[in-house]
Amino acid sequence: MVVNFKVFKKCAPNNMITLYMNRREFVDSVTQVEPIDGIIVLDDDYVRQNRKIFVQLVCNFRYGREDDEMIGLRFQKELTLVSQQVCPPQKQDIQLTKMQERLLKKLGSNAFPFVMQMPTSSPASVMLQQKASDESQPCGVQYFVKIFTGENDCDRSHRRSTINLGIRKVQYAPTKQGMQPCTVVRKDFLLSPGELELEVTLDKQLYHHGEKISVNICVRNNSNKVVKKVKAMVQQGVDVVLFQNGQFRNTIAHMETSEGCPLNPGSSLQKVMYLVPTLVANCDRAGIAVEGDIKRKDTALASTTLIASQDARDAFGIIVSYAVKVKLFLGALGGELCAELPFILMHPKPSRKAQLEAEASIEA
């Protein structure tokens, strides 16, 4: 029987160290994160010299433009989350995966397995989209598996004997829907009787990427003002927790209509507006939060960041949220009336069968 695995392989520039991993995306289920596992293969010279080989999980958080950096000032933090010695092997119990067992049989005595546990408090992989003409390193959170040789894990690594393989920490949508979002806002006017009421309801709380969002709008005009226009939009909220004023919003989908307007005093209006937030419609806009790898052609808008508790919020580099905002325009003197409903936008967790069908397998 032939067993097939998808394996990622990367060699150091001097070809003395080779890294094998069967995946580069690791799922964060809020309470725990999938372990990072792989195999390191050394050249015979490194084994004879008894070289010390270290593997590290590195989190790179860039929070400012590379062009704005000056002498002694860098808008980047590099954190080593996990560090361990792989060779010579330390006395520790490692529960090998099936992929590791098969690769160890195939690659021989110069192969050494490793397993690292990513902290649950670490941020998800998120990047901020930049202009097409900007070739500098984008802002965001990236992860790397770093392999190098040295006297200790704090030793300065040399480029020719170092491997850096980018990985991603991802979150998938929960299996259960939450409560149906609904809100009612009212506005009264100075020296005018009655009030204007706006009720907004979404058909559900959890949406998958590319799914149509149904916004149910009900307007009851008990005032003496006239509603001129209705606008619905999806806004992406980005919170860079390192800064006190690092919150900003981008409108990623919108629709406005004058159908049923002007809405005169004593009248009511019921309407359903449909919105589909996609990256395709925002591919040229800077500041949009996207999934961890901008170079991928199939990348999408960043998913909603799920946090176990608000106390752990400061540990997350970039927090992404989504909300539907409905706005009624009442003219120059009447002003506006706004209602806002947060919702969750995420990818569904793929089944194991779908993952195997999507992967290009190689014979192990």
UniProtKB/TrEMBL annotation:
Organism superkingdom: Eukaryota
InterPro entries: Arrestin, Arrestin-like_C, Arrestin-like_N, Arrestin_C-like, Arrestin_CS, Arrestin_N, Ig_E-set
Gene Ontology terms, MF aspect: G protein-coupled receptor binding
Domain Arrestin C-terminal-like positions: 192-350
Pfam families xrefs: Arrestin_C, Arrestin_N
The entry's keywords: Sensory transduction, Vision
Entry-linked SMART domains: Arrestin_C
Cellular component per GO, a single term: rhabdomere
SUPFAM superfamilies: E set domains (SSF81296)
GO biological process: G protein-coupled receptor internalization; negative regulation of phospholipase C-activating phototransduction signaling pathway; photoreceptor cell maintenance; sensory perception of smell; signal transduction; visual perception
Family in the record: Belongs to the arrestin family.
Protein name (database record): Phosrestin-2
Originating organism: Drosophila virilis
